[in-house]
Amino acid sequence: MIKDMFDKQVIELKKLWGNKRQLLFQLLNLAMIVFSALMIWKGLMFMTKSESPVVVVLSGSMEPAFQRGDILFLNNAVEEVGVGDVVVFKIKDRDIPIVHRILKVHEDENGKVELLTKGDNNRVDDRGLYAPGQLWLEREDILGKATGTLRYVGMVTIALNDYPVLKYVLVGMMGLFVLTSKEG
Amino acid sequence: MHTIWVRLNAVVFFGLTVLLGLSCLAAVSKIGHSYYHQPVIHKLELKTLKSLKSHGGVDRALLSFDIHADMEPAFHWNVKQLFVYVVASYETDSKKVNQVVIWDKIVEAIDPVKEIKQENVFVKYALVDQGDELRGKDVQLQLMWDHMPITGFLYMGEQPKDTMTQFTLPSEYQ
């Protein structure tokens, strides 16, 4: 059955190759989808002033508030982050940002803040996770404050990360469908 | 045109759209809830100050407090848990804002009792200053809570300023 369907797709593709005008139309369609997604992402980046407006929770350190696979919407347009806020921050020389809660805030007259964070589910604060010798986070280290959450959606991302092959399969399939699907 | 793939695609896509729509509805369904339903904070005040010492150049105070708060009103069907925490805030010469969480507790929606009534609670995190400026400072205690939704927005609540209590730390180490 699968083979049958696969053959059908191949036939569709061959037909498409024959009809250059149709091919062009479908390619444009594909490009539009890709660029719409890109535009939405960049638009979100602009509005939230965050370099990654949506993140996936990868660890259980914030359980039971957030589980692995939840996605968080970040906002970095807020000037102040306060104690108790859930923030995503980046540590120098570490690729993966961390989602934790602010435990301490110290701010001087010039508005320079120093922060200490901790995961709800961790026993100790995050000093051990920071760069060697680093005692405090600063405002620039914060990628954004978590403002909303959506469950399970991030599971897809986790699966894609764990099995990179899936990425190509998924993208390939989507591309194929957009190319071969016909309007009305 | 009517292959199984197209149909599958349509069903999955429509299903996801509906889920997303429902999530959005869930998120907005309780806007304004906290305006009418505030937790009742009966008491949050210092019980005893155990010590105020210098630890390797930074001041550290250990204390215990009494707390009595009913968090039930803050819950609605889209709140999975409340992250309840006690913040000690004070002002020093070098830092204008100092906020330190000294205690926290997670109250889950499935917990049968959502009232926090404990006496002589020892701090979970010591009140540690960044420097050595804790002596003789006024410290305010405030209860705050963060609503963690099943899906939707995170938002904070805090004890009204006029019901907050404060205490003064001794001017000498003890």
UniProtKB/TrEMBL annotation, chain A:
GO MF annotation terms: serine-type endopeptidase activity; signal peptidase activity
An individual GO BP term: signal peptide processing
The organism's place on the tree of life at top rank: Eukaryota
Annotated ranges, domain Peptidase S24/S26A/S26B/S26C: 43-129
Ranges that cross the membrane: 23-41
Catalytic activity: Cleavage of hydrophobic, N-terminal signal or leader sequences from secreted and periplasmic proteins
Localization in the cell: Endoplasmic reticulum membrane
PROSITE patterns: SPASE_I_1 (PS00501), SPASE_I_3 (PS00761)
InterPro entries, sorted: Pept_S26A_signal_pept_1_CS, Pept_S26A_signal_pept_1_Ser-AS, Peptidase_S24_S26A/B/C, Peptidase_S26, Peptidase_S26B
Gene Ontology CC, one term: signal peptidase complex
Record key words, sorted: Endoplasmic reticulum, Hydrolase, Membrane, Protease, Signal-anchor, Transmembrane, Transmembrane helix
Pfam family, one: Peptidase_S24
Enzyme Commission number(s): 3.4.21.89
Keyword Hydrolase included in the entry's annotation: yes
Top-level enzyme category: hydrolase
Similarity field: Belongs to the peptidase S26B family.
Descriptive protein name: Signal peptidase complex catalytic subunit SEC11
The organism's taxonomic lineage, starting at the top: Eukaryota, Sar, Stramenopiles, Ochrophyta, Bacillariophyta
TrEMBL record, chain B:
Gene Ontology terms describing biological process: protein targeting to ER; signal peptide processing
Keywords assigned: Endoplasmic reticulum, Membrane, Signal-anchor, Transmembrane, Transmembrane helix
Pfam family, one: SPC22
InterPro entries on file: SPC3 (IPR007653)
Topology with respect to the bilayer: Single-pass type II membrane protein
GO CC annotation terms, alphabetical: signal peptidase complex
Subcellular location: Endoplasmic reticulum membrane
Family, similarity comment: Belongs to the SPCS3 family.
UniProt protein name: Signal peptidase complex subunit 3
Annotated source species: Nitzschia inconspicua
Upper classification of the organism: Eukaryota, Sar, Stramenopiles, Ochrophyta, Bacillariophyta
